[in-house]
Amino acid sequence: MSLANQKKLLISHLLRRAGLGATRCEVERLCQGTYEDAVEELLHPERNPDMDDDLIRRYHVDQNSLMLIESSQSYWLYKLINTRRPLEEKIALFWHGLFSTAYGKLNHAKAVANQINTFRQFGLGNLRTILLELSRDPAMLFWLDNKDNKLGTPNENYGRELLELFALGIGQYTEEDVKNCALAFTGWTIRNAEYMSRRAERDSIWPYGRLDWQFEYIPENHDDGVKTFLGYTGRFNGDDILDILCSSPTTARFISEKLYEYFVADSIDQATVDEFASEFLRCNGDIRQVLRTIFHSTAFKDIGNMRSKVMSPIDLVVQTCRICQSHSFPDWNIVLTAMDVNFMGQEILNPPTVEGWHTGSEWIETGSLVERLNASAKEISNKSLPGVQKIISLVHSHGPVVAPMTLVDVCLEAMALYDMPTSTKEMLVGYASKWGNLAFDREDAIPCSEQRITELLQMIVSCREYQMC
User: In the chain, count of helices (H) and strands (E)?
Assistant: First the structure.
């Protein structure tokens, strides 16, 4: 393989894992620089312009207010498809899966959407800052009941999940640590919590909508007594707990494992995770720096780890929409596309439990696989979409008559599928050869040839490799 093709392969892999799917234009643009340049562009989303929400608000009043769960799901999906800051959205997806907060209990979609915005803002920063913002986030305060955590009547739900699922992992703490962690977070609540809860349960979303929840610290509800936590003793509050957690090698290893599973491979290589954890401790939990280490690591670049992870439903749908250039302008049917994601088993903004989604091979079962194939095939066969039109034009540019082998090569190149195995390519060529060459030299043959291109595209998105990243 030539050096140019090796670079294409590596950068497309980077965009699938650290971005939202690789497109030909993005790969070719980034290939003008070095791999290191591509990594830095992803790691610094602020260098690219943010999306202007004015357009969304003008054409979608429901996505302006974000009161309905369908509206909030569609709003995030639109940003995922059209963002020029892919890692900003990707890291928000990562934290959403790890710090799972669901609409199902809150009954307040905008509160969850606001939490996602917090992940966009702080997700590549320092872990302590991320956990502090999470601990003050109204959706999380409601989701894990810390709004009810008060002096004399502590609620351990948030303290337990902070240790078990967010920072340390099972077996790395004691029940006494859970109790004292909960006491440290007493008084961290939602402003006017009881009224806000009742309003969310009973109000009409029209015409004025619900009120935003806001964080409030109530000193008289805080337990200021001496506490012992992970071997440290003092009159700790929530900030102190986060200081202890974020300086712990156990937290460094826990977060590094989660990042490894998300960006590198489903099967943990402990030696590599230890390297990431050491970097985490060295840089005081700077997620951007840890990710830089990951993207430059041998494990990440290993060809054996490419196409080794099953794409999540969100990643699959967004990748296909970006290739097709669908939903590049606000339209009503993006709600249906968001529903496709839900039917595949990943209901946006509404994970099934506090554990989030079970990923990897668990994304694939008989029902969800049919949804994955049908949704991808339906999108890529729509000849009215700009991205599909470009692929058809690219094939047409190869002459009045196009051989099956050329047709397959051009389509794979147009979809940034540079690493399709020989066996799969042979299968695709065999399929394309059934009707012989494509003909663009007669007016009456063009519609049939274009139909055959879209049928091949449907076959490509149904391949195992397309469903993997």
Answer: 26, 6
207: preceding bond cis by omega (within 30 degrees): yes
- Non-local CB neighbours of 194 within 8 Å, separated by 6+ positions: none
Q: How far apart are CA 231 and CA 245, in angstroms?
A: 11
What is the residue type of 69?
I
**Stretch (H or E) spanning 233:** strand 232-234
- Asked if residue 65 has pLDDT above 80, the reply is no
Q: Is the peptide bond before 219 cis (omega within 30 degrees of 0)?
A: no
Could you give the CA distance from residue 351 to residue 115 in angstroms, rounded to a whole number? 14
- Residues 409-427: pLDDT tens digits? 999 999 999 999 999 999 9
Q: What is the CA radius of gyration of the chain?
A: 24
Beta-bridge partners for 229: 232
- Specify burial of residue 298 (Cβ count, 10 A radius: 0-12, 13-18, 19+): exposed
Which tokens belong to 181?
Answer: 């962690």
Q: What is the pLDDT of residue 40?
A: 98
Q: How far is it, in rounded angstroms, from Cα 71 to Cα 334?
A: 10
Query: Tens digits of per-residue pLDDT, 331-353?
Result: 889 999 999 999 999 999 999 99
Instruction: Say whether pTM exceeds 0.90.
Output: yes
Residue with tokens 């700790």: 236
Where do we find the tokens 């569609």? 74
8 Å CB contact between 385 and 457:
no
User: Whole-angstrom Cα distance, residue 423 to residue 429?
Assistant: 10
Output the furthest CA–CA distance in the chain (Å, rounded): 86
Q: Which two tokens stand for residue 122?
A: 């702080």
Containing 227, the helix (H) or strand (E) segment is strand 227-229
Single out the residue of 197, 221, 223 nearest to residue 210, CA to CA.
197
Q: 177-219, pLDDT tens digit by residue?
A: 999 999 999 999 988 767 666 666 665 555 555 667 889 999 9
Cα end-to-end distance, the chain, whole Å: 20
- Give the separation between CA 23 and CA 321, rounded to whole angstroms: 10
DSSP 234: E
> How far is residue 300's CA from residue 277's CA, in Å, rounded to a whole number?
15
Distance CA 189, CA 147 (A): 4
Domain boundaries of the chain, sorted by first residue = 48-303, 386-467
Give 193's contacts (C-beta < 8 A, 6+ positions apart).
147, 148
- Residue 51 confidence (pLDDT): 86
d(CA 448, CA 81): 30
| pLDDT reported for residue 223 | 95
- DSSP label at residue 311: P
